[in-house]
Each structure stands twice: as structure tokens, then as C-alpha cells.
Design goal:
2 domains
Length: about 160
Amino acid sequence: MAIILSIVGGLIVIATKSLNNAATKKLNFFPGSTVNYLTGTFFSLLFLLLLRQRIEIFDKIAEIPPYYFLGGLLGLLAMLASNYTLHRLPVMHSTTLIIALQMLTALYIDLFMFNKYSYLRTIGALIVVLALVWDQRIILEIKKKEALAEKISRGDRIE
């Protein structure tokens, strides 16, 4: 079940990135991001009510360690970073970069919180990052060649 939910979650992340990008393009960066975050907040509260879960957070808010609230802040920052970069990078690059950095962060957490380290996983994450950099360089070279071909076809002077 966990694998199926992970797959569904991955599909939802890509769909979310596309929708967030569309809102950001239509409304601009901060208004589009705000709409996305407020919508998420609204539906979180709606799901709590529909699932008839007792909202105990208000009873126990004083017991919650302050650093737990960083999850919401970090989620907001991750969404803002994704919205900012998505229309500057192809969806595949943006997603791959996020996954690679999640892998490296997980390795860091495993090492420093659980005293576990995997050389193979580190190499795997670095291969993903290097492949992304390599692919981006290839895309830039193709764009340069296309721009040069366009200049030639227009009869512009080539320097």
C-alpha cells in the first residue's frame, strides 16, 4: 500500500507543479503562490471536517514544540521555490533536481540523525545531479545553434 501511495503522491506532485505554474503565470509569482497555499489550507481544514476528526490542535497547541511549525514554513518555501523555478526550467529538470536534492538531504539526515551512511546512494544521487547538469548544457548548446541558424536564415551578420 505504501508503494501505491508513493506513486500516487508522485503523480500528484507533478500535477500540482503544473497547476501552480499556471496560477503563477496568470497571477504573477506571489499572488499565484498565495492562491495555491490558501487553497491547500482550505482543503486541509475541509478534509479534517469531512473525516470528522476532532480538531485537538487548539487544545494542545502549547504542548507542540515550536520547531514542529517549521514544517509549514518549509513547505511554503519549497512551493515558492518550485513556482519560481518552474517556468525557468523544464518540468522534468525541476522535478529531477528536487528529487536529487531530496535524496541528498535524506542522506544527510540519515548520517547525522541516525548515524547511517550509504556510499551507493550518495553516488546514485550525484549521478542524477550530474545527468541533469549535462542535459542542461546540451539544451543550452542546442539553443545556441538554433539562434545561430536563425541569424543565418535572416541574413544577419555573424560575429
